[in-house]
């Protein structure tokens, strides 16, 4: 993994508007926000994609994300928000370090806007795929 802007923020080489920090997680305001209160939550562990994180780092993120969401909502007055987490370049990941965006929504036109282009899931394919994934979890 290359030296990303997030590693420089974790090390203190680049300043940030810090919201939260513990042994495993750092959270700070996005410097290019989509809306007021747009925050980032990152693990201190170096990993590009979510599935590469240790269980401890993943659990630490899971524990703190709801707390930071509640704080962002209380302070900004927003009632809705998006959580965005991308894995890999074709999934629109720009910084190659695991990170979650908390993006407050103030109206339909504020914050994150996206399309949701669905594809059909045939019953037989769904059964087969679900079984294969479940079997992999048990391996």
Rg from Cα: 17 Å
Kindly report the CATH topology: HIT family, subunit A
Number of helices: 3
Q: How does CATH name the architecture?
A: 2-Layer Sandwich
Q: What is the distance, rounded to the nearest whole angstrom, between the alpha carbons of the first and last residues? A: 28 Å
For the secondary structure, the number of strands is 5
- Give the amount of beta strand, in percent: 15-25%
Order of helices and strands: HEEEHEEH
What would you note in describing this structure?
- With 139 residues, this protein is of the alpha+beta class.
- The chain has a single domain (5-114), classed as HIT family, subunit A.
- The chain contains three helices and five strands, in the order H-E-E-E-H-E-E-H.
- It has helices at 5-11, 55-76, 123-138; strands at residues 18-21, 25-29, 39-43, 80-84, 100-105.
- The protein has a five-stranded antiparallel beta sheet with strand order 1-2-3-5-4, with helices on one face.
- The model has no long low-confidence stretch (mean pLDDT 94).
At a glance:
The protein is of the alpha+beta class.
